[in-house]
Write a structure and sequence with these properties.
With about 500 residues, this protein is α+β, with helices and mostly antiparallel strands. It has helices spanning about 5-25, 35-55, 60-80, 85-115, 115-125, 135-170, 180-205, 215-220, 220-300, 305-325, 335-350, 370-395, 445-455, and strands spanning about 30, 85, 205-210, 210-215, 355-360, 400-410, 410-420, 460-465, 470-480. A 5-stranded mixed beta sheet has the order 5-6-7-9-8. A two-stranded antiparallel ribbon has the order 1-2. A two-stranded antiparallel ribbon has the order 3-4. Helix 1 packs across helix 2, helix 4 (about 85-115) packs antiparallel against helix 6 and helix 12 runs antiparallel to helix 13 (about 445-455).
């Protein structure tokens, strides 16, 4: 694609900038982001220019493969030396960058070869007298060469950056721990693309008697066929990442569905309990006259015995009323049952936990499905209760509370869950939500993702904020029937 040192420098710098963007989107820099970026760009550019100049005149195909191996080793070294992250992610990123870079370079080279036919057109026009010859033709040729190089480098930089950006945007589960089998699935398309690109590089350009020639000169149809192959390889490399992310989301949705079904079983029991409470209240009302008559009789009887009987009777009545207390009344049966269930779970873990849900009220004309309300509230309450439990373990005297609130503005329905926590957050700059500190991150840490997926079904969003030792989650949704699979894609 280039012969002069300055062209090699230009390409290397463009690659270095894209490389830092790609790595920084997944990994946390060991130094300040700007310092790490500058070092990565400089080291990559210097080493790449040295590789290009050192291997440029060598025709041995094994040496070309050796250059490719050195480039991958350099990519892996930069990922591990200047960024903090898991080695599997570094291996994946290095293969992906190398694959996309080789495809973009070869596509740019093919574009440059296609542009060379302009010179044939200029020669024909000059021969027919349509264009002036001499110095004017030489000047036109120089301008054409410059324009072609500019277009080629611009095309290469845009294609490389756009492809890497697509991978970054597709790979949303950056906190997910990749297994070995999944790593193989991710890197196989990229590795295959690198091998095919290297094969094309070996066979397309040949040198005979110090005269370079290309396969495009002998078979012009390859100018159409090779780009098609390269574009298919690029799409395979990029969309494998998206498929992998969709698989993760589907797995989490399945786990969330199983978990929700288990919660629904528990909620059913609590709903039956709520029904018994309602029946008890109706019975209390029916027997209220008799209760008042008994109280009046005990009160007018006088004496210590009667006072003791009255006290015992009132204590038993208070215990009965406590059992019949409707602690949560939100206007939504699913929410009431879920709050009732989670409250009893919470007080077992944190006995003095305060749960305030008086401001949590659901409108009568709520179109959001109870299943999704259960997912949002269930996951938010689990996170909040766990945070209060950890706070209580660290600070036994700390005040632990959980507050729920809802309101409606026009067609938008808002839920807000606020809770106390220990003030410690685990979050990488690349992650959208705080991460779990439990070892089994695949089984835990899905709460925010589940809430987000449920909210997206109603064109909603999830936000979180921290103020001191107070953590707040806000969920916004349109009050309409949900559609789609919760992936946020139409």
């Amino acid at each position: 694609m280039y012969n002069l040192p300055w062209e090699s420098v230009v390409v290397a710098v463009l690659q270095g900038c894209c490389l830092h963007y790609f790595y920084h989107s997944f990994l946390e820099p060991r130094l300040r982001a700007r310092g790490a970026g500058c070092l990565v760009i400089i080291l990559w550019a210097v080493c790449k220019v040295v590789f290009d100049l050192g291997f440029q005149t060598m025709e041995n195909s094994m040496l070309k493969i050796g250059k490719l191996i050195l480039m991958y080793a350099l990519l892996l070294f930069l990922a591990l030396a200047f960024y903090k992250g898991k080695r599997k992610i570094a291996v994946f990123l290095s293969v992906e960058f190398l694959a996309v870079n080789e495809i973009a370079l070869l596509l740019a080279y093919t574009l440059q070869q296609a542009g060379s036919y302009l010179f044939v057109l200029w020669d024909w026009c000059i021969g027919q007298g349509y264009l002036p010859g001499g110095e004017a033709a030489i000047a036109a040729t120089r301008r054409t060469v410059f324009a072609m190089k500019l277009i080629t480098y611009t095309f290469f930089a845009v294609l490389l950056y756009a492809s890497l950006r697509k991978i970054v945007r597709s790979y949303q589960e950056k906190e997910y721990s990749i297994r070995k089998e999944e790593l193989v699935f991710l890197i196989l398309p990229g590795a295959a693309a690198v091998c095919i690109c290297e094969l094309l590089n070996i066979i397309i350009l040949t040198v005979k008697d110090n005269v370079p020639s290309t396969l495009y000169d002998k078979y012009p149809v390859l100018l159409l066929l090779v780009p098609v192959i390269l574009v298919l390889l690029l799409l395979l490399t990029v969309y494998t990442v998206k498929i992998f992310q969709d698989m993760i989301r589907l797995g989490r949705e399945k786990s969330s569905r199983i978990r929700m079904e288990q919660q629904l079983v528990g909620m059913q029991e609590h709903m039956e309990e709520l029904g018994q409470i309602h029946s008890g209240i109706r019975g209390i009302r029916h027997d209220m006259k008799n209760i008042l008559s008994v109280i009046a009789g005990l009160a007018t009887g006088g004496g210590e015995t009667e006072d003791g009987a009255l006290s015992s009777y009132l204590a038993e009545l208070e215990r009965t009323m406590d059992k019949l207390e409707l602690r949560f009344q939100t206007g939504n049966t699913v929410a009431d049952a879920l709050l009732h269930m989670k409250y009893h779970e919470a007080v077992r873990a944190v006995p003095d936990l305060r749960m305030d849900a008086e401001a949590l009220v659901f409108p009568a004309a709520l179109l959001i499905q109870g299943y999704d309300i259960g997912i949002i509230l269930g996951n938010a309450l689990d996170n909040a209760i766990e945070a209060c439990r950890k706070l209580k373990e660290k600070e036994p005297a700390a005040d632990t509370y959980l507050r729920l609130e809802s309101f409606q503005r026009g067609n938008m329905f808002f839920l807000e869950i606020e809770n106390s926590f220990d003030g410690t957050l685990l979050q990488s700059p690349q992650a959208e939500f705080p991460a779990t500190d439990k070892e089994d991150k695949e089984a835990h840490g899905m709460g925010f993702a589940n809430i987000k997926n449920a909210a997206k079904k109603y064109h909603g969003a999830v936000e979180w904020a921290v103020s001191g030792k107070v953590f707040t989650v806000s969920v916004m949704m349109k009050n309409e029937k949900g559609g789609g699979n919760g992936s946020g894609e139409e």
